Amino acid sequence: MTAVLALFRVMLGSLRDLLPIAAVIALFQLAVLQEPLPHLLSILVGLVLVIHGLTFLIFGLEMGLFPIGESMAQAFAHKGSVFWLLIFAFCLGFGTTIAEPALTAVAAEAAEVAAEGGVIPNSNDEMEEYADGLRFTVALSVGIAILLGVLRILKGWPIQYMIFGGYIGVVVLTAFAPENIIGSAYDSGGVTTSTITVPLLTALDVVLASAIKGRNPMIDGFGLIAFASLLPMMFVMVYGMVVT
Fold first, then answer.
1. What is the 3-state secondary structure (H, E, C) of the chain?
2. pLDDT lower than 70: segments of the chain
């Protein structure tokens, strides 16, 4: 019964999150464009599927992955195994990003646009290879970013200097990267902070800061997501330089 109530609560939350989006689309379609919604039945079925999909995804993460991630972070911190903690951080960042639905969608769209723009040959194999390369590059960058973030917590490094230096790197690379990859690179920083990645990395951040002596969860327990947003921009621009 408790699990059913929790599932229902998550479903209500998903419905609440999607209703404003649906309301905005309907308002502009009917009031501003003054045209009926095309394929209304398909849209309604799609909304129902999205609500159920988000519900089961979030409920599954809360029930299974989040507790495992938190317990493993605590165990690594208490045992003092820095090497394996950093390996775990990298694999967690890489794995959650590869599984991120938003990244898959953006990578596929970027590959299609690149093919239409003549950046890559217009074939399914080339587009799939380009999209996979983009996903792998972003996932690799997030894995390294989480590793650096965990190292920052362990060493107590000030986050502002690391973020400031990172954005200097973004600006410098923007001046040299191909124009056709810059927009995708900046968007890559956003799609990495979505449904799967954010809760897991936040939990890792806070748990580590709470478990390590001398660290304040309010000061050191946040900021990991900033690294996950920052490094993909640089890595994707370098990817664009290599591919194009």
1. CHHHHHHHHHHHHHHHHHHHHHHHHHHHHHHHCCCCCCCHHHHHHHHHHHHHHHHHHHHHHHHHHHHHHHHHHHHHHHHCCHHHHHHHHHHHHHHHHHCCHHHHHHHHHHHHHHHHCCCCCCCHHHHHHHHHHHHHHHHHHHHHHHHHHHHHHHHCCCHHHHHHHHHHHHHHHHHHCCHHHHHHHHHHHHHCCCCCHHHHHHHHHHHHHHHCCCCCHHHHCCCHHHHHHHHHHHHHHHHHHHHC
2. 1, 64-66, 69-70, 73, 76-77, 80, 194-196, 244
CA dist 133 and 71 (Å) reads 32
Cα-trace Rg, the chain: 20
Q: At what angle do helices 2-27 and 40-60 cross, to 10 degrees?
A: 140
Are the CB atoms for 233 and 186 separated by under 8 Å?
A: yes
* Residue 5 structure tokens: 């109530």
Q: Which residue has the tokens 């609500």?
A: 51
Structure tokens belonging to residue 80: 């003092």
Task: Convert the pLDDT of each residue in 187-228 to its tens digit.
Answer: 887 777 766 677 777 777 777 777 777 777 777 777 778 888
Q: Residue for token digits 């107590």? A: 156
**Token output for 27:** 């308002």
* Structure token pair of residue 42: 């398909």
What's the predicted TM-score (pTM) here? 0.76
CA distance 232 to 27: 35
